[in-house]
Specification:
About 30% of the residues lie in helices and about 30% in strands. It contains 7 helices and 13 strands.
Amino acid sequence: MANHLAKLLAEFEETSTPARARNIIQVTGDEDGEYHAYHDCARLAREVSREEASAAVVAGLNRAAVEQCAHFAVHSGVVAWPQGMVAIPAESGQGKTTLTASLVRLGFKYASDEALVFDAGGKVLPYPKPFALSTWSADLLGFPRNEGELLVTAADLGGTVSEGGRLTDLVVSEYGHDDLRLQPLPKSQAVAALIQHSFNHYKDPERAFRLATDVAREVRVWRLEYDDPLEAAGLLAETLR
């Protein structure tokens, strides 16, 4: 179990700086091959398989990371191409993870399928948590069928992790359209998308709006209407490259 979790979290950057643990995750197993997972004193999962316990641990770590993030953060998929970073802000269940994974499979570097995080200077910081693919997404991307969520890394998709950089493109995606379409939008739509999908703008609204406005001045903004994530990823790759 420890080796499995280490593989899933290996794409996070290691640091030699000592730090006091703010979150304690514990996983225990029994003779029947069932696992129990805890975050501090809260139970994350009990009597589950290794894969289910891993998913619970990653979800618990992700919740803690988002809640404790000191930077302006937006619920978004994020990938990198040679010119910079591409963000796809969206609500959960709108295809963001599958679209991001499809772009990584096409050669984009991976930054996150969860959070677009900016430092104080507006640089994008990578947050390469494992992808949690639904059965449908795993099938689409060619992974073996799995009961429940399948956790995969950028390396599993044949990709690598980005070191971060400046945001160059923001894609407002709309899943569920029969026709595939990518068209430019006014820069003002970038501000709206960043604030709308932010995890923590309410902590410092003035700073969040100022940073979102500064970022919007530098990016191209797009509306992507699609139904097939693989086709949509291909169109984005063709257009942005």
